[in-house]
């Protein structure tokens, strides 16, 4: 008898529905799985056999053939176990399979028949809902993550026995209905680091406010202990709260990457990723033998912090050029294309030289002129030119350490939310959201300069040897500074501040 069971396969951070066809024919006992499954899928033979037998069910004799359709899509992972098991039990007529076409099945099996937690639940349940399925049977440990998807009934289980009882009408599975985003999520601001801890560097905190308000990337150069890392780690505390779509997209990424757990079923705080400078291209961009998101995707809707950017492999850093502009990364692996989002705010930090004290009045630099030139050459080139803001940090003096008036994350966040509200209203009929997304076509309309401002920009262009890309970035920055000042037209003071943020390092 032939049976058809619906499951799903993860592809990038999305998923596609998969039909698991099972046929049991007369012949020598064997199980063949076809349809471009990986080793994990093929190893399911032994898990399924033991799970069925240890659940008190009958493992059918004969030749079992399982086809996973469409055959042209690679199937990876152990989450097909439950679907293949139900296909075998349906083909051997061990339960009433009426209306089974309205069900999707996701879950890995242990040898005793328990249904175990698996990765990628959120995109798979989303794909099954889009296919029009009414129900999905999934691991109980994944129910909270799956609850982010509306429009499909969730039936969480812990064992095959529960599934069989449900279809044999002896004990129905209790649906799980809980939308965690329908209520206020637990506040996490208390656990985030606060800018009130940063003494001094008020000009840098202003620059960070501008960067976050407009979504601009930023490079900070300064001697050791000037606060580069301390400031960067506190940026998530001033970023606006994630909306529903951002939470779902970020949770999908972390689900596929296997970084969720029953204790943390979704991501509601903007990510902060700080990769080591020895990271590989696959670790940064994504990929590998089994494609998975890289650091730029894990930082989606959050911050990617590259500490000591000069120590990173230059070739690897240069690969960030396209993701910085397109906010996504396309990877090709074994003839298949995987598209991952990469909408992150880049924050980079560096010492001015190898020893770290070039230009520091309080410490003597021990680097030779050749070493200084060689090190600073790492802070040039196409990727650095694409970073919107270049800021120099100076050491904090003793009087600043004792200053009692310090701007907190709450105060900075209020300014940022004010500026972002202005941007949302301005771009409500456009395909962009923040000022950093302005292109050549929109810049004239939304970042218009008067005659006086144009003259100042022309003088700066000649004096500081700027290039057309830099001019565009200065205008975007001036637009953000003006938004923080109320959202009116760009004035001379706004342009002057924006030019300061393109300091020659």
TrEMBL record:
<protein>
    <submittedName>
        <fullName>ATP-binding protein</fullName>
    </submittedName>
</protein>
<feature type="domain" description="AAA+ ATPase">
    <location>
        <begin position="214"/>
        <end position="397"/>
    </location>
</feature>
<keyword id="KW-0067">ATP-binding</keyword>
<dbReference type="GO" id="GO:0003677">
    <property type="term" value="F:DNA binding"/>
</dbReference>
<dbReference type="InterPro" id="IPR027417">
    <property type="entry name" value="P-loop_NTPase"/>
</dbReference>
<dbReference type="InterPro" id="IPR000523">
    <property type="entry name" value="Mg_chelatse_chII-like_cat_dom"/>
</dbReference>
<comment type="similarity">
    <text>Belongs to the Mg-chelatase subunits D/I family. ComM subfamily.</text>
</comment>
<dbReference type="Pfam" id="PF01078">
    <property type="entry name" value="Mg_chelatase"/>
</dbReference>
<dbReference type="InterPro" id="IPR001208">
    <property type="entry name" value="MCM_dom"/>
</dbReference>
<dbReference type="Pfam" id="PF13541">
    <property type="entry name" value="ChlI"/>
</dbReference>
<dbReference type="InterPro" id="IPR004482">
    <property type="entry name" value="Mg_chelat-rel"/>
</dbReference>
<dbReference type="Pfam" id="PF13335">
    <property type="entry name" value="Mg_chelatase_C"/>
</dbReference>
<keyword id="KW-0547">Nucleotide-binding</keyword>
<dbReference type="InterPro" id="IPR020568">
    <property type="entry name" value="Ribosomal_Su5_D2-typ_SF"/>
</dbReference>
<dbReference type="InterPro" id="IPR003593">
    <property type="entry name" value="AAA+_ATPase"/>
</dbReference>
<dbReference type="InterPro" id="IPR014721">
    <property type="entry name" value="Ribsml_uS5_D2-typ_fold_subgr"/>
</dbReference>
<dbReference type="InterPro" id="IPR025158">
    <property type="entry name" value="Mg_chelat-rel_C"/>
</dbReference>
<dbReference type="GO" id="GO:0005524">
    <property type="term" value="F:ATP binding"/>
</dbReference>
<dbReference type="InterPro" id="IPR045006">
    <property type="entry name" value="CHLI-like"/>
</dbReference>
């Amino acid at each position: 008898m032939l049976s058809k069971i619906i499951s799903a396969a993860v592809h990038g951070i999305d998923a596609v529905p998969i039909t698991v066809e099972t046929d049991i024919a007369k012949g020598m006992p064997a199980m063949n799985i076809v349809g471009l499954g990986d080793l994990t899928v093929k190893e399911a033979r032994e898990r399924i056999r033991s799970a069925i037998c240890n659940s008190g069910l009958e493992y059918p004799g004969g030749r079992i053939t399982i086809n996973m359709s469409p055959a042209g899509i690679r199937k990876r992972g152990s989450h097909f176990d439950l679907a293949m098991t139900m296909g075998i039990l349906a083909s051997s007529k061990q339960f009433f399979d009426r209306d089974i076409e309205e069900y999707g099945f996701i879950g890995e099996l242990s040898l005793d028949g328990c249904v175990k937690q698996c990765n990628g639940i959120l995109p798979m349940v989303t794909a099954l809902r889009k296919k029009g399925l009414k129900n999905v049977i999934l691991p109980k440990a994944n129910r909270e993550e799956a609850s982010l998807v509306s429009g499909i009934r969730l039936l969480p289980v812990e064992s095959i026995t529960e599934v069989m009882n449900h279809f044999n009408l002896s004990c129905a599975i209790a649906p799980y209905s809980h939308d965690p985003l329908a209520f206020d999520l637990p506040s996490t601001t208390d656990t985030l680091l606060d800018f009130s801890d940063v003494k001094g560097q008020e000009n840098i905190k202003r620059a960070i406010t501008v960067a976050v308000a407009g979504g601009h990337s930023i490079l900070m150069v300064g001697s050791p202990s000037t606060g580069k890392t301390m400031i960067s780690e506190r940026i998530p505390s001033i970023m606006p709260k994630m909306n529903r779509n951002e939470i779902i997209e970020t949770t999908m990424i972390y689900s596929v990457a296997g970084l969720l757990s029953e204790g943390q079923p979704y991501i509601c705080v903007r990510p902060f990723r700080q990769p080591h400078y020895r990271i590989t291209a696959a670790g940064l961009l994504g990929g590998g033998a089994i494609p998975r998101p890289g650091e730029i995707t894990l930082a989606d809707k959050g911050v990617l912090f590259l500490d000591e950017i000069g120590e990173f492999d230059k070739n690897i850093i240069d690969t960030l050029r396209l993701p910085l502009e397109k906010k996504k990364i396309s990877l090709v692996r074994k003839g298949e294309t995987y598209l991952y989002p990469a909408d992150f705010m880049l924050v980079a930090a560096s010492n001015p030289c190898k020893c770290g004290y070039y230009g520091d009045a309080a410490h003597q630099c021990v680097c030779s002129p050749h070493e200084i030139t060689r090190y600073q050459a790492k802070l040039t080139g196409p990727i650095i030119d694409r970073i919107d803001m270049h800021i120099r940090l100076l050491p904090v003096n003793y009087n600043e350490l004792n200053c009692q008036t310090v701007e907190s994350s709450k105060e900075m966040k209020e300014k940022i939310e004010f500026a972002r509200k202005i941007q949302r209203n301005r771009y409500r009929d456009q395909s962009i959201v923040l000022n950093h997304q302005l292109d050549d076509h929109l810049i004239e309309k939304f970042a218009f300069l008067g005659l006086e401002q144009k003259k100042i920009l022309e003088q700066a262009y000649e004096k500081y040897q700027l290039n057309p890309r830099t001019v565009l970035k200065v205008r975007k920055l001036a637009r953000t500074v003006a938004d923080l000042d109320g959202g009116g037209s760009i004035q001379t003071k706004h342009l002057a501040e924006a030019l300061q943020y393109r300091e020659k390092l």
